[in-house]
Design a protein that fits this description.
Order of helices and strands of chain B: HHEEEEEEEEEEEEEEHHEHHHEHEEEEEE
Oligomer: heterodimer
Strand order of the largest sheet of chain A: 3-4-5-6
Distance between the termini of chain B: 98 Å
Radius of gyration of chain B: 31 Å
Helix content of chain B: 25-40%
Radius of gyration of chain A: 24 Å
Structural class of chain A: mainly alpha
Strand content of chain A: under 5%
Largest sheet of chain B: 7 strands, antiparallel
Shape of chain B: flat
Number of helices of chain B: 8
Number of strands of chain B: 22
Number of helices of chain A: 21
Helix content of chain A: 55-70%
Strand content of chain B: 25-35%
Chain lengths: 481, 400
């Protein structure tokens, strides 16, 4: 077992991602370092899995030194390109002064975060793959690929029987995207052996990266250190998220990170107009599609918000009219069934939906409100998130609607939540809600973005409710006279 | 002067919030104590009921029927002890014990209630009295040795040999509680360790889920505190300070999070005790399903080092069978295992050099040692060789 190899596997992708995120970023605004580290880690690790796929597709063996050499090349290139840019020496942002209870609260929150992350990292370090799908679906491919030094195909049982070869495998989840097993394979390659516990260390890093990204983006948005640390604490203290770190091996944390980072960047782009943030939103949303199939669904959540920004009222009315007519026609003709080029199939009716790239779903209303209430408001998976977030939304709604960027952000998060509710209430996924197997895991993928939006919305609220504009002492004394 | 006023203004949201939280907590705890002081409510919170199936007999295995335990009396002067799954409890909290049967016995039975305070403590044993046709009971308050902490409890039964009864449950009936005891019960429920289970990856149940869940209780606490803050704001005519509302929410969050942190730390302690300091293979040995890992190691010893195709069959494909076959599949990797069936596919899919592994009482496939062949289905067969395994319930064949 090589500790140097392990350190390389854990840190090199992070360094590459961070180096590339430095490019084209003038100045060093407050929080930029955290954004670079947070986004850099997720980009670096998921980028490494893409690189491994490229190497395999090129017919080269998947050997650790080959990938390390390529990553080192990318690192040097990133550093060189970043180093030639003149704004590298721009002055750092001045830190803000804190005093009184704010300082004490900040210290408390930082201490809680440190204890949480350290504890979770220790749990990952000691505990072998534990939850069901981690070993039955995801880890299985990682072990096979690690030993074969190649991305051997996983196929359906029928195809496996037909193939009759020892280098074609089968699994109950053969169609899952390969990124998560590749992360485990990468760490195992660094170690020089398969280890049920250590291959999961990137899950602890992913949580830290998510926290850094959340903190950095809030600082970039003008939030105070206390606000940014507070929001990061709220996010990283969520029991569902913590569980997915401690019992590492599922893809949901990576999906939450990639979609969360995309949603944060998207909202920042809406508010600041920075193209860089827009590009990151697109990049991380695309990376999400390589983590889980849901990534493709979450891509749709950005479209209506883009429409709010880019389209005028007339265009919206036209789209609404076209969609209404399409729905009416669909209802009148009883559905749509199209064979697309390349063998893809698009079918839509009020009883069934089939979209290329996604599993076909039967549609029908399934009232699982009681289960949803239990998981969100009674059980302890989310702390007070689902009590506070809707409340905040209602309070902030009038101001959010008045501002175009905030309105688009609101459309983005409500579209994402609408998609989830549609899945829970109208598709076969209702069964997972009833069994309690997927409801929290699917919501986890959205929550980093929702949390970021919630904190943004909270910043728009007035300092006081119900007292009107502050009245100066001078005016008070005048009226008394 | 101005800076002093500013400091007071700065701290105002803090002390206002603290005051609201404290008053709200007092209101809520008073309400909870009053509610659970009513007998029908405290019984639900404080009585401890153990279903028959959860009891452990000292004389081998006993059948269960749903949640009942089917108790068969040994007779011949011998007595059967049924251990309750009790870790430790405060004797003073309970006034009586009651057992319930699902059907009346045909022959008379004698039931005894026995307990020990510690392993060194001598066993205390008292006969239960019939309460009605299907129940026996005992007043614990009158028992001089029923005090302090009780470490283990058992029911003892004696009667005619072979007599069989269904034990539905055993209930320890709580004393009418004091305010302190109600607070203790509620806190015990909220702080009860949850630990990791197969469900954990899907969600956390959280404290007190059975009777009084922590999360809605904290939410209610915050609602009352928020109403108080609003009242203060209206009385003081200074408006509701946003910082106070945020502090309120944060305080509630911290409370539920401290409980979660405590649970994480307790779990980390267990994980450390189980796995710390072990290398990869030793961790597999130390895992909860070590016997499956050991089976996999025995199978591996019989296989070549290069990956081979293995048809892994179990009697069923759900429940325990599903877990065992998938776990064995995992431990056999990188061998190429197909493990979601109870029988073999068409013989044309089996190749020379493939392996067939039968785990448990698989009856769909059988081996004829004379002709050295595996048979299954209507008339499917393949020439095979049995490889010696020293483990009952595990059969391995190589296709020839």
């Amino acid at each position: 077992m090589s500790w140097l190899g392990l350190a390389t596997a854990l840190l090199l992708p992070w360094a590459v991602g961070t180096a590339w995120l430095r490019l084209g970023w003038p100045g060093r605004p407050a929080g930029a370092w955290a954004v670079r580290l947070g986004y850099g880690y997720v980009l670096g690790m998921l980028g490494t899995t893409l690189l491994m796929r490229l190497v395999d597709a090129a017919g080269l063996p998947l050997r650790f030194p080959i990938i390390v050499a390529l990553l080192l090349g990318l690192l040097l290139l990133g550093l060189r390109m970043g180093g030639t840019l003149p704004w590298r020496r721009a002055p750092a942002a001045v830190g803000e002064e804190l005093s009184g209870w704010r300082e004490a609260l900040l210290a408390l929150l930082l201490a809680l975060l440190a204890v949480r992350l350290a504890g979770l990292a220790m749990e990952v370090y000691w505990r072998p793959l534990y939850p069901w799908d981690a070993w039955a679906s995801w880890g299985q491919r990682a072990i096979v690929w690690f030993h074969a030094h190649a991305l051997l195909p996983f196929v359906s049982k029928t195809a496996w029987l037909e193939a009759g070869r020892t280098d074609v495998y089968t699994s109950g989840a053969y169609w899952y995207p390969p990124s998560v097993p590749l992360i485990q394979m990468w760490v195992a390659q660094g170690l020089g052996q398969w280890d049920d516990a250590l291959v999961n260390l990137p899950w602890a890093q992913c949580a830290a990266a998510l926290g850094l990204a959340c903190y950095g983006q809030l600082r970039l948005a003008g939030g105070s250190v206390l606000l940014a640390v507070g929001a990061t604490y709220l996010l990283l203290s969520l029991p569902v998220l913590d569980t997915h770190v401690a019992l590492a091996g599922y893809a949901d944390l990576w999906m939450a990170a990639s979609y969360g980072l995309a949603a944060m960047a998207f909202m920042q782009w809406l508010h600041s107009g920075e193209r860089r943030q827009g590009a990151w939103a697109l990049l991380f949303a695309l990376l999400g599609t390589q983590v889980k199939q849901e990534g493709l669904v979450w891509m749709f959540s950005f479209l209506p918000a883009l429409g709010v920004v880019r389209l005028g009222r007339r265009a919206w009315m036209a789209i609404t009219a076209v969609l209404s007519i399409a729905m009416l026609l669909l209802w009148l003709v009883g559905g749509l069934d199209l064979r697309l080029p390349g063998g893809a199939h698009l079918a839509a009716s009020f009883g069934r939906l089939e979209i290329p790239g996604l599993p076909a779903v039967a549609l029908g209303y399934h009232p699982v409100w009681e289960e949803l209430t239990r998981y969100l408001f009674v059980y302890g998976s989310w702390h007070l998130f689902w009590y506070l977030w809707p409340l905040l939304l209602v309070i902030a709604l009038p101001r959010a609607v008045a501002d175009k960027a905030a309105r688009a952000s609101l459309v983005q998060v409500t579209t994402a939540l609408g998609l989830v509710l549609f899945m829970f209430l109208f598709t076969d996924i209702y069964r997972w809600v009833k069994e309690g197997t997927a409801v929290n895991r699917i919501l986890l993928q959205l929550v980093p973005g929702l949390m970021f939006f919630g904190v943004h919305a909270a910043r728009m609220l007035p300092g006081r409710f119900g007292a009107g504009a502050p009245v100066s002492p001078a005016r008070c004394s005048q009226s008394a006279r | 002067m101005a800076s002093r006023r500013s400091a007071v203004q700065d701290w105002r949201p803090v002390w206002e919030t603290m005051l609201a939280l404290v008053i709200s907590a007092i209101v809520l705890w008073t309400g909870l104590i009053a509610y659970y002081s009513l007998p029908r409510h405290y019984a639900r919170l404080a009585n401890k009921t153990y279903l028959g199936a959860s009891l452990r007999p000292d004389l081998g295995e006993m059948k269960t029927l749903g949640t009942d335990l089917v108790v068969t009396v040994p007779g011949g002067g011998r007595r059967l002890a049924l251990l309750l799954p009790v870790a430790e409890l405060q004797a003073a909290a309970f006034a009586a014990v009651r057992i319930r049967l699902s059907g009346a016995p045909t022959q008379p039975l004698r039931w005894y209630f026995a307990w020990r305070r510690s392993p060194e403590d001598p066993r205390h044993e008292v006969p239960l009295r019939p309460a009605d046709e299907l129940g026996w009971a005992l007043d614990l308050k009158s028992q001089p040795s029923w005090h302090d902490r009780v470490g283990s409890i058992a029911l003892i039964v004696e009667g005619t040999q072979g007599e069989s009864v269904q034990l539905a449950d055993v209930t320890l009936l709580a004393k009418r509680p004091t305010a302190g005891r109600i607070v203790r019960w509620i806190l015990d429920g909220w702080l009860e360790p949850e630990g990791w289970s197969g469900y954990s990856i899907n969600g956390v149940v959280g404290g007190g889920a059975a009777e009084l869940p922590l999360l809605p209780s904290v939410a209610l606490w915050l609602v009352v505190a928020c109403a108080l803050l609003l009242g203060m704001a209206l009385l003081g005519r200074h408006g509701l300070h946003m910082g106070s509302v945020v502090a309120l929410a944060l305080a509630g969050w911290l409370v539920v999070d401290l409980r979660w942190q405590l649970d994480l730390l307790r779990q980390l302690g267990s994980t450390r005790a189980q796995f710390a300091g072990l290398y990869h293979m030793d961790r597999r040995e130390a895992a909860d399903d070590t016997e499956i890992f050991q089976l996999a190691q025995l199978v591996r010893d019989r296989l070549p080092s290069r990956p081979v195709r293995i048809f892994l069959l179990t009697p069923g494909t759900t429940g325990d069978d599903q877990y065992r076959r998938l776990r064995l599949n995992y431990y056999l990797l990188p061998h190429n295992v197909m493990s979601d069936d109870t029988t073999l596919p068409d013989s044309r899919y089996l190749r020379r050099g493939d392996y067939v592994l039968l785990l448990g009482a698989v009856t769909a496939v059988h081996f004829d040692a004379q002709v050295q062949a595996l048979y299954w289905g209507a008339d499917e067969w393949v020439s095979a060789m049995r490889l010696a395994m020293r483990v009952p319930g595990l059969r391995l064949y190589r296709v020839r």
